[in-house]
Design goal:
By secondary structure, the protein is an alpha/beta fold. Helices cover 34% and strands 10% of the residues. The protein has helices at residues 74-88, 115-132, 150-166, 198-208, 210-219, 227-244, 256-273, 286-297, 309-312, 331-341, 366-369, 422-428, 430-433, 439-442, and strands at residues 59-66, 143-147, 175-179, 324-329, 375-382, 395-401, 404-405, 420-421. Strands 1, 2, 3, 4, 5, 6, 7 and 8 form an eight-stranded mixed β-sheet that branches.
Length: 445
Amino acid sequence: MISASPMFLYQSSRKRSPRKFLQFGLQERLTRPYVLQQNWGAYSPYYPVAKYVAPPEGCSITQLQRHGARYPTASPGAAIAMAVNKLQNASVYTDSSLNFIRNFTLDLGTNDLVLFGASQSLAAGAETYNRYKELVSVDNLPFVRASSSDRVVKSALNWTYGFSAASSLRFNPVLSVILDENANDTLHNSCGAIGSSDNQTDTWIAIYTPSIVQRLNNAAPGANLSSNDVFNLMTLCAFESVATESISDWCGLFDEDEWRAFEYEMDLDKYYGTGYGQPLGPVEGIGYINELIARLTSSPVNDTTQTNSTLDRSPVTFPLDRTIYADFSHDNQLIAIYTAMGLFKQARALDPTNSNFDSTNRSWITSQLVPFSARMVIEKIQCGIGSSRQDEDGDYIRILVNDAVQSLDFCAGVSKEGICRVSEFVESQSYATNGGNGDWQKCFE
């Protein structure tokens, strides 16, 4: 069990003056007006996809959340540095929009949570308290777990601080379990034989970047940028923006259509990485779903995949009597869980050659699924809720992803408000309860 006094936890060697980071209001889901930060895919800052609607009274919740905004990991960071170096080595710029590059210093960290990312988790904890404070008592505090990556642990701790601060320090949850990412961990991907999305993302990058490559190389003769360099410079826009809490100068080198194309590359990456386009993607989410079923039904975990059976058998490390559970994970793992559960299923697979093939009906938009500090909230509603067959008292479920209520079409008898009986939800999760129908064994072949 870890406890600490309320404070921000993040890591940075950079000294900054506070600067305003632009936040935007709600956007209509289908029309998707252009908002720069909402086209950064998994590097987008969290934003609510819909206006939150409170559930009927009487519920308990499980919240699964991605860590907050971070610096790039080591390999992408090195690729960014290489692309910047190519531009800085150009002897002349023929376009004044590149002039800032000459004196630009790349000083991003590696892997670590940034201050903005810490504040995202703090705000999420406060939001959870304010929405669900009726569920909390001194004897029934949120039970919090995290995967062992440093940025995930810090995100979980910051969430507890936000929750505590919102309650005026009356209710002080702690991070109780850290799951080792080198062992069985339902909050981290662990299928060794899983494929990658490289074929699909490389195909799309080769389609949308050539005109950008030509434009930038004309503006910086001798830079010899490649398509991958362009992609890396676009990620630099996002990473520097969340690190400095202001829009990076690098963002202005690309127009709206180019940012939409970048977002689609991120959509392909997740869809074919651990989503529906990856045969072994969903299997990485079934352990967590089986833990969720245990919480919803107050019964022991029944799973033979990536759960830690020692921890899950103990009421100390996996209690079944809490009203709020909060788990902290990574974007790829959230995608696997969404997919294993049946959320965001597409009528057709994403086309790596055409971003507009089904743009009206497509709900697979990475910035809406797993932005920095993304969250899925599962509400167990224990009351009569009215309307048709759901006018009886009982246990029901409602799922929100980034505040958008999910339709749960896979759940028999679901209401138009997205509310379904827990028993029907459990019945719908046969892929998880059957251990992945043999897919888990394929991870080790």
